[in-house]
Fold this sequence. Notes:
This protein is 60% helix and 10% strand. The longest helix is centred in the first third of the chain and has 37 residues. With 525 residues, the chain is of the alpha/beta class.
Amino acid sequence: MLKVLLVDDEVFIAQGLEVLINWQEEGYEIAAVCQNGKEALEYLRENRVDLVIADVMMPEMTGLELLETVKRERISDASFVILSGYGEFAFAQQALRYGCMDYLLKPIERDDLLAILRRSSSASQDARMGQRYEQEYLTRRLISLLYGMGTAEDLEYVRSHLRLSPGVRYVEIELAAEADADGDEGELALPRNQIYANCRQLLQGDAGHCVLELSHARQSYAMGLVYCGTMAEERGVTDALFLQQLHRQLGVSVQRELRFIVGRRVADIADIAQSYESVGTMRNLIAFRSQKPVYWYEHELQEPPEEERTVLLRRELDALIEAIERGDHGLIEERVQALFAQMQLRGMKRRGINVNFNYLLFRLVHLASSLDSEADQEEILHLISASSVEQGFLRGSSRHLARFACDYADYLTQLRHSEPSGILRDIEREIRENYAENLTLQDLGRKYYINSSYLGQVFRKAYGQSFKNYLALHRVNEAAKLLLHTDKKVGDIAEEVGYHDINYFISKFIEIKGCTPSRYRKSRQ
């Protein structure tokens, strides 16, 4: 439904408009009724509408002043229709010069109103489609800069389409308690898409700074924000306060707990790749630390004060690592208990416990990479940090730590001895036969009796991409065949290949094929 804002100081005029036609049949709903331009302006600052129907002459702020202010300050991209009497026709002409779509003469005729609404509906659809393609084009160029592969043309385009200032940061926005990374992609994408849409609405004129479709790079379901200082300066606040307020407003709007990871500050958008990479580094660190709403690069990487440093239980930790390396589950249980007994004896607080767990996890990364020289340390770190969060031992449970340690011991055993080629053939067959199902590495690991972290690692080594991206590529390729060889609707095809959210399917199709499903079908007919 398209949203309409009615603005008129004469209550009976607004009431007459409400009952003059069946708004719902025309695809509209009346979002609000305001009695003057000032009241309407405040409403537009907080809410999105598609059409504003406003009287010319009103107290406090006229319809012309409202229109001119909205266009000048880029408060809303809604279409405007001005109501005027015969004696006010000159004002209507002036409104047209300000960018008003049309005017209606009082008394308002039903057919005249319907004609304008239908034209507005068609224009709104065309505008939304154009804005969507423009945003996707901007996003692709921005992603090229984030990945450090942008051209001079990309840089020029981004500079001409974003409001930038000296001092830029990349900010990653995601769910604080992120779902299992091997869950259903459509389900995981739904909250991310909602966060993205709401963030764009909150930022209004800076909505183009929001970036979607970066999740495949980090195997997380997040969105990005290219932040620059003007966003805070215009509101008269500091960078920290602006991001704190955005975090709170966005969390309330989506009714979910979020976390912001704020990358290092770089001088210019040309260097934004450095800020993007710094967020990747921070993600691996904060997985082992106490949770908070906003993480800043400068704060997370600085050395803690002397009084906050803690004792490292190296003897107990090294003994546990030795048991993990030997693969002795009984000994692991025993040494986990010894570690926790020592932490309890010393009265360790959360920070001290996290430092010791941090040491343990980084030693485990080194242990795995020493067994396989071609292993990607960053990916191993991601895999074990995801597992450790899922197991729950970062919250201080000895039972969960013991289970994680036993699982990791099995992983190391398979890393030493397992021959993955046969398993990979089985996984390939699973994808070919069941690609539309909710396939996950965890489920496949249980089915074929192989550690899921190890399976993910050997899969990436064999195919040069993650299991998730490989599955998405296969689904999109199957969808492309259906687009060319059947007349099924795009929504039905999305369901058939395993995507239950059509918007996520379309964005994934664009990412892989470079165009929308409809355009792909038309271009090959």
